[in-house]
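Protocol step 4 of 6.
Sequence for DYW domain-containing protein (Dovyalis caffra) entered exactly as in the expression construct, tag removed. Do not edit the line below.
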Amino acid sequence: MCCRKLSTFRSKPPLIADIFSRQNPLNPKPISTISLECRIIEEEPTNTSTNRHYGTYVSLLNHPNPEISCFYLKGFSQISKEVAGKALHALCIKGLVNLTVFYSNTLINMYSKFGHIGFSRYLFDKMPERNDASWNNMMSGFVRAGFYRESMRFFNEMRDFGVKASGIAVASLVTACERSEWMLIEGVQVHGFIVKVGLLSDVFIGTSLVHLYGTYGLAADAMKVFQEMSNKNVVSWTALMVAYMDSGEPSTVMNIYQQMRSEGLSCNDNTMSSVISSCASLEDALLGYQVLGHVIKYGLKTNVSVANSLISMFGCFGSMREACYVFSGMDEHDMISWNSMIAAYIRNGLCKESLRCFSWMRHVHKEINSTTLSAMLAGCGSVDNLKWGRGIHSLVMKFGWNSNVCASNTLITMYSDAGKCEDAELVFQGMEEKDMISWNSMMACYAHDGNCLDALKLLAIMFYLRRAANYITFTSALAACSDSEFVTEGKTLHALVIRNGLHENMIVGNALVTLYAKSGLMIEAKKVFQTMPNRDGVTWNALIGGLADSEESDEAVKAFKLMREEGVSTGYITISNVLGACLAPNDLLEHGMPIHAFIVLTGFQYDEYVQNSLITMYAKCGDLNSSNNLFDGLTYRNASAWNAIMAANAHHGHVEEALKFLLKMRRAGVDVDQFSFSECLAATAKLAILEEGQQLHGLAIKLGCDSSPFVANATMDMYGKCGEMDDVLRIIPRSVDRSRLSWNILMSSFARHGFFGKAKESFREMINLGVKPDHVTFVSLLSACSHGGFVEEGLAYYDSMIKEFGIPAKIGHCVCIIDLLGRSGRFAEAETFIKEMPVSPTDLVWRSLLAACKTHGNLELGRKAVENLLRLDPSDDSAYVLYSNICATTGKWEDVENVRRQMGSNKIKKKPACSWVKSKNKLSSFGMGDQSHPQTSQINAKLEELKKMITEAGHVPDTSYALQDTDEEQKEHNLWNHSERLALAYGLINSSEGSTLKIFKNLRVCGDCHSVYKLASGILGRKIILRDPYRFHNFSGGQCSCSDFW
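Step 5 output, structure tokens:
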């Protein structure tokens, strides 16, 4: 016994640098020998007699096994069992026959077929004479055994010996590059060699190249090769179809099929299987039935492979009756038939039927395989069915299929769908062998779980190990980065997509449009969209959804119209997205109602998702009555419908109604979910109704919903907006466990309560912990700087947001900067900023500037601001009121009267000031000079008492806040009629001494009232919290948390 050492099967660790430094594998290199797995077979000379030889000859001819009886004519080519092959080889060594070139070639082929590539190589090296078939068999043997690098070296050796490259050898070499899943560059080089030596006309080589590019997801390159082929057969056409099918472009497959038929070619079973699978992917039942007619026409209805594909197709259509009909009509059922039937049941949610089919399969067919269990596992990817999934996982272990790649891949997907990422990770890490689907499934799991960094790490490991990546790999990785926090990583992936030639793949393109749209980068999203060679409904939905989220209503509706003009079918997602773009009252007549008419015309009014979107749209556009009417007309109300109507009422400030809907929802037997609590908590936060918010928090804890990130963050926001900063700090997660949204809420709460330093400290801590800020983070931060008077710091934050963190400025950031500069009286800089803003100024910009002009009495700039504001929204009452106040403050009483006359002629009413306070479970609200409250006499008496106390303390009324042209005494009287003073008096009367008093106002607090509150807190020794639309004023000991800057 002797052995030869294999030194070439273990390649060096793959490095990214190899891509640039790798030598051409077609350059001749000496080929190494291969170690033998067992004893070496030596050919020994023999002196057997002719009679003995003849006797053996006769006995072989009469052998009952046809594989052996045809040995003299076909050599080892028909041997199907290794034992028989080795026995025949032993007889040859003992003198049965001389191992001629023909016998040696078939023997080499036999050993490679049984996986003994070492034996094959040894025999090849010992051959005294070789022909083309010898080289071809050896080359095919390397490929069959999976020694793809060795096949490349063997090809170089073949050229060194002067053997002309045959079509079979080159086709085998291309197949090696295809099957390796990481030899694309080598495959491209082989392609160049093929063109150079003129072998592209060989139909086998051309077809193998189509397979190569299809395997790597480069369907466009496969098409180029196909078009350059002078000879094509049905296998070539089928290979091209498979390439596009694997690239997720079933519509292109159907186009190729039509072209193939127009050229008069007949289809085989593989062709029809690909076409049927494409119909299933397109979910086009009419097309599927047309193809079924072709199946019958071609006489393939009895073909098992085609029938299996039909079962799967009908399963995708939800036509289980037809699937059962095909199955029962089959003359024979193979393993795939049973598996297809089980998968069809699972796909349609018929778990019990799938279990019956599984039981019947074990009784009739007797066998199951890993694919059977994989099909069963596919139906267990939910919390409800996970227990069955774990049971089937046990069966996988019992049958020893835990090492089966297909079964393990399905387990990863099952645990991922059930939200058990840790279990999926354990399965993945325990796999001895992983294929592309394994890596893609695990990456999709990370993406589904929001673990972007883990997904990117996995992709980096794939590149390091030189594992092949296809369009699904990049689609999952891009999905993991669909958040503004990871936009830089997303752009890097975009570059890798281009480098790998996948930028023309439609599914990857869809993922890129979604990535940029969700990150708010609509310019980039549009660029990707426009450069895509093919677009489907998903592409348009991603674009329209992004435009809607970015509040580009006109652009979203325009895209919707273009989509219809291009003949792309619209679905419920499209309708829901475009309805989401209707946000304001002027959108209702222009866009919302025409879209509603389209919905009725196309029959989408019965779709649950569309119904809920309509409820939301009408509410956002100011028509709550239509929202309520739509809800009342629903025959079936799911949780989403209840949540939509609660959000609609909360949006209009009808908090009590929203909470009533929550009670009705529970009485109707519909489970309250995390979104129900989020909507109701947001409603209580909007009006700062603490008690109801606390009750909701308690109910969420009782129902186990408080652990939901949505509910937890909504609860924190509610406490922050209700003035309970201590509760925010009590329930917020630890710093290391906080999400970005939790950090944003904390900073916003600090800013709202006047703790500007703490807001900035939180930002620094967030950055130090590696949490990336988003545009909301900087809105909170800039707002804190604006209300705190930190002008230079605010400008520095704005600059770092764009340059350091790569976050584009949105209208919210620009409003904060205008407010920041305006509050400090830097109007020249504010005007310059408005001119250079990266987004068009909206009403928010001009209103902020107008408010600053009112504070500083800048009449000229105020006039310019109000002109722009009224140009955008002529019905805006705040524009008239603020400008009127500027005129009043500067003594321009004639202008004040002109403004009021304009309001009257335009039928515009000023939003009345209102303050409210809750005492003993009763909410009492007050308007300007309100005398309707039952305790009015007590309130007036308390006001007189307060007036006397603060006057004695040295208070001098600031009558500039009394915006009427009257004498000073009347102005002072009017100041004491302000709603916040009436609420203060009521609160003092109806609260216990020493308790904290909370008062709320719908408009900005008056400056003189602010002074009164400060003095009252010091004189009475009471802590008073006043909340206006902008912030909390915490009065204590004669001071305010805003430091008189608000």
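Step 6, annotate. The chain has a mean pLDDT of 85.
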